[in-house]
Amino acid sequence: AQTVTQSQPEMSVQEAETVTLSCTYDTSESDYYLFWYKQPPSRQMILVIRQEAYKQQNATENRFSVNFQKAAKSFSLKISDSQLGDAAMYFCAYRSADAGGTSYGKLTFGQGTILTVHP
Amino acid sequence: KAGVTQTPRYLIKTRGQQVTLSCSPISGHRSVSWYQQTPGQGLQFLFEYFSETQRNKGNFPGRFSGRQFSNSRSEMNVSTLELGDSALYLCASSLAPGSYEQYFGPGTRLTVT
Fold first, then answer.
1. What confidence tens digit (pLDDT) does each residue in A29-58 have?
2. A70 CB contacts (<8 Å, ≥6 apart)?
3. Which neighbouring-strand residues pair with A71?
4. Are B85 and B21 in contact, with CB atoms under 8 Å apart?
5. Where are the alpha helices (H) located in chain A, listed in sequence order?
6. Cis ω for the linkage preceding B61 (within 30 of 0)
């Protein structure tokens, strides 16, 4: 079974600064997807960024980028130029890409990191 | 295009009752997954439906069940409610089980007293 671990229950950052959220995962699979989701106080889960395991290039979406280290099974999220609207709970998630596997389609989430942005 | 909708948004039930939650996926999406979110256990996968068939099930007791209709709308049912069933229940839709992205609804907040 796959597991996802977020070791930082809470993080804080000053507006306009950069912050990095950590995530590690454990899997025996070679093909999978990794995601970062944001959950603001409204509770609506929003996809922030995604990464395919077979791609060596780190994904980037505007101010959000990841550092994907497949051998180390590490997937951190960097938020640059932090904004007040970035304050939320952030979840790292794993999904198998094995269409014949029993966990295909299922997202496995980490425990989440609460990000506070100070003005 | 309308997003994923879930009804009701809030629900209060008493122990022993049963409850049915509804999820309407994004138009054209045929896969629906359900997740339970609690402060203690975090986000846990309940089940996934595709083309009216349950493809995958998480580690939950048989009191938790679901179904999917021909229009892809899905319902989940919890019978004999327990206090520990109090949670936010999230529904996510995607084009198919292997689709890249899952889009989440706003959730149903269930409180069991």
1. 888 999 999 999 988 899 999 999 998 899
2. A53
3. none
4. no
5. none
6. no
CB burial of B56-71 (b: ≥16 within 10 Å; e: otherwise) equals bebebeeebbbebeee
* Interface touch B100/A50, C-beta < 8 Å: yes
Q: B31-67, pLDDT tens digit by residue?
A: 999 999 999 899 999 999 999 999 889 999 999 999 9
d(CA A45, CA B3): 12
The amino acid occupying position B94 is: S
What span, in angstroms and rounded, lies between the C-alpha atoms of A66 and A55? 12
Q: What pLDDT is attached to residue B1?
A: 67
Q: Is the dihedral of CA B7, B38, A36, B35 positive or negative?
A: negative
Q: Find the chain A residues whose C-beta atoms sit closer than 8 A to any C-beta of B.
A: 33, 37, 42-47, 50, 91, 97, 99, 102-112
Query: Nearest-CA residue of chain A relative to B34?
Result: A106
